[in-house]
From TrEMBL:
Similarity comment text for this entry: Belongs to the polysaccharide lyase 1 family.
Entry protein name: Pectate lyase
MF terms (GO), sorted A to Z: lyase activity
Pfam families associated with the record: Pectate_lyase_4
Compartments, as annotated in UniProt: Secreted
Region named Disordered: 47-68
Originating species: Micromonospora noduli
Chief localization: secreted
Low complexity bias locations: 53-66
Amino acid sequence: MRRILGGATVVALLLGAAPAAAAARPDVPSADRLSWLADHLGRQTLPERDGWAADGPGTTGGSAATPERTRVVHNRAELVAALGGDNAGNAADAAPKLIYVDGAIDGFEGPGGTPLSCADLADPAYRLDAYLAAYDPAVWGRVPPSGPLEEARVRSVTNQTRQTQINVGPNTTIVGLRGARLTGLTLMIDRASNVIVRNLTLVDARDCFPAWSPTDGEAGNWNSQYDQISVRRSENVWVDHNTFTDGDNPDSAQPVYFGRPYQVHDGSLDVTHTASLVTASWNRFTGRDKLLLIGSSNTVGPDVGRLRVTLHHNLFDGVLQRLPRVRFGQVDIYNNHYRLGGDDFQYALGVGVQSAIYAQNNFFTLDAAVDPADLLYDWGGTAVTERGSWVRRGGGAARPVDLLAAYNATHDPDLAADAGWTPTLRRDPVLPAPLVPLLVGPLAGADRLPI
């Protein structure tokens, strides 16, 4: 007899869920009893050939977690406990862990659940008004801050890092149940290979104590420390079906100090410090400034031969730059949808030092003010493979556009057309670009999985 599958199961299988025989788990409290489908998706591993994270041993996360290491968490304290119990040492806990997030978890949740403010985390010697008065370029000059107030700011950053940076160990899966949110925190994946993060909405990983960098650019800049997810010195990481947003605290709403925006957010998903073998798929990035930085610096060294990342079927919606910005790595970017515009938009693909971007069959929906020639930006790179791009601009008809040719026609020096490699780790055939918005819009982001 032919078995008829339910709609949710069909969707799960279409999204790559491997077979599972688990029933609703009896080993968790009844209030947190997991459905068959939640257990099924929580134990899903990255499918074979699904981007760079499928290379080597592949990415299985916490699929082998025992009942004792399978937890449903509802607050910061429970999340830290599920990751090993000691936030400072959790990065070294290599036991398989499967963690379901239920509801909203706030990184600014203090002992006993009391909410903390930036003032609670500030060193007693730090005050923003005093900092602004001391390091105003008109008074201090254009040299980096130093002295007691800067030292107090650094101590304040240490306090915040201890509170809002959640350290994730190897062999871990963190998956959100419907409506799960992580607010005001960073998931730090550092020296922690084989990690899966899925179906979470990550909101407002704000920095209470941005640093003033007077030599960053012509006019200086405020720089923040905290990403929403940071991958460092790790391999085989799969980030899938998440939503990244600043919520009701966008950088555009921040004040201006020293003539520059007081930027309190850093990246959405940064892959740096020799990390490699990362697949980011079916994510939604909305209303943010800096998104994806791949590569820590322009210094030729240990990053060479690393930073291999795949980005596919992601939605970049109303975002401004680093979509991604790449140094050194072989980065495969295909079947993504970019909805871009606004006065503050800067660029999409940043071609950095020794980068090897292979961009294929991506779709760009642009405001009339955005010139397709400005979708690429030269950060010291020399070549990019770009093919099959389609553009719909200002409500007009969609059409194929050679983005590299458009860039080279209006910028010097030219970028060469061959990044020197061809991706082989792709699970499914690459879609024609005109089909990408039809699929990515409904399916990318958190709460699209049937969980």
